[in-house]
Fold this protein.
Amino acid sequence: MRTKKKEGTAEAGKAVSPEKAAATGLWSGTVSFSLVAIPVRLVKAVEPGRVSFHLLHNKDYSPVKRAMFCPGEGAAVPPEEIVRGYELEPGKHLMVTDEELESVAPERSRTIEIAEFIDLREVDPLYFDHPYYLVPLKGGEKSYRLLAEALRRTNKAGLAKFVLGEREYLVTVRSKDGALALSTLHYSAELLADAQYAPGKAADEKEKNAVKKCVKEMLGGFTPGKYSDVRRKKLLALLKKKAGGAQVQAPELEGEPAEGVADLVAALEESMSRMKGAR
């Protein structure tokens, strides 16, 4: 196992995104609707399972740092000489100052104000972005429980806006196992039109019925615990072996995949047969 000789981090100087700031619980305020105001704190709901690596110099294993580089001058650019530009066309930019960005920033607020209550079944999953939990602060426990219970019984969610960092987010607030869960949403203008991706030629009735039958046979409940990130498990096992000084052999490469793609209906039927056999 190689040990770096110099302490440091590859993340030095990296800006913290609003999402990351919120995930560490740095935002607190109130959830409000009508005459109700519930003091809460925003915390992360997901712990990313990605295994990260630092980039090191192979001579002394010191962490390397990113530097802004000007290809025209062939030299690094100091921070005080860096400005923001919006690309109008290749090679042509419109300069924007920090003061100008500040002038259009949303007014900072400590309130998640629910504008209306909606049925989440009407929200296309494409709109969902980042999930968080809202934790009640001292004095807000009772109203927090009442809102969570009301949302659970009515199967509704609150639709609201709130400001985090320099951005105003559209969010849903819903009940999950007695807690309030908040999800940021994409704005409708951010979603790409799907018409260009839909195939023009429709399948015939026989193919439709065959696929419909296969899907029906494979129906099951959503149990995410059955699945796991296999690559992450293998990667952690690899790191554990290397940390213990074990030599790791590179796997042999598999042959090239066969030409062509199996017929969809046949593939579904084969998959269904395997599932029946497993049962």
Summary: The first strand starts at residue 27 and ends at 33. The longest helix spans residues 264-278. The CA atoms of residues 168 and 196 lie 30 Å apart. The two ends are 45 Å apart (CA to CA).
